[in-house]
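Checked the freezer inventory, then went back to the computational side. Two predictions to log before the end of the day. The first one is the construct we discussed on Monday; recording sequence and C-alpha cells without edits.
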Amino acid sequence: MQNKPQTPTTKSFAIDPFLVLRKVYDTVEQLTGPAIEKLITTERFARLNGKVMEAILRTQRATRENVSTTLHLLNFPAREDIVRLGELVLQLEEKIDKLGDRIEALEQRSGKPTGG
C-alpha cells in the first residue's frame, strides 16, 4: 500500500454575487443620493429634462412618419389605414343594426314576418 499524503480539507468560500451587488448599490446610493437629489430638484435640470423629452417626442414622430411612408411605398397598410378601416367597419355594423331594427319594426306593423 502506498501512503498518500492527506490534503487538508478545503472549505468553500463561495461569494454570493447578489450580496456583493447589494452592498455596492447601498454604498453608491449613500454616497451619491443626496447630490443627485439636489441636482434633480433644480430649475436647470427641469428645463434640460423638458428639452430631452421634446427631442424624444420629435424622434418618435419622425420615426412613425417614416415608417408610415415606407409602408405606403411598399403597398402595405400603415397603422392609420387599419384604424380607418376599423372605423368604417364599425359604421357599417351600426347601419346594419339600424336596418335590422327597421325591418323588425315593419314586420311588427304588418303582422307577418319577412324572413330571417
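The second is the one RB wanted added to the comparison set:
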Amino acid sequence: MAASEDRRVTDRRTGNRRGEVLIRVRMSAHDAHYGGDLVDGARILALFGDVATELLIRLDGDEGLFVAYELVEFTAPVHAGDYIEARGRITRVGNRSRQMEFTAHKVIAARPDRSRSAAEALDPPILAVRAVGTCVTPAKLGSS
C-alpha cells in the first residue's frame, strides 16, 4: 500500500487505521412494521447509513453521500425490543469512493413469550443483516 493510501484509511481523530464504527440501538414498537412486532429491514439499512456517515466524517471530515449497496443479506428477524449493534468499516478507498462492509447483530432479544418486559442477552450475538455499500466524498475533499 502506498504511503498516500495509508494516510487516507486512518481515522483523523483517533489515528485508528481500522476505522470501525459501532452503534447500538434498541428497536422500539415504532420500528415494528409487520405482524409479530417484526422490524422492517429498511430500519437496519438506516442504521448502516448512520454508521457510513460517521465513517466518512472520521476519514474525510464530510458526511459524503451513500450511492449504492452491492449486497444486502437479511439473515435473522429483528423484533421490537431487540438491541442491535450495527457495525461498519471502510474496506477500500478510491479517489472519491469508499467501499464499506456492515453487519447488524442482535445482542439482546425481546422475550414476549415470558412476559411483556422480558429479554435476554445473547451469547453469542445473532447476525441479523450483512451488507456492502459504496459512498462518495465531494471532489474537493477526496484524495487523489
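For RB: The beta strands are 20-26, 32-34, 38-39, 65-74, 83-93, 97-110, 119-136. Confidence is low (pLDDT under 50) at residues 1-8. Let me know if you want it refolded.
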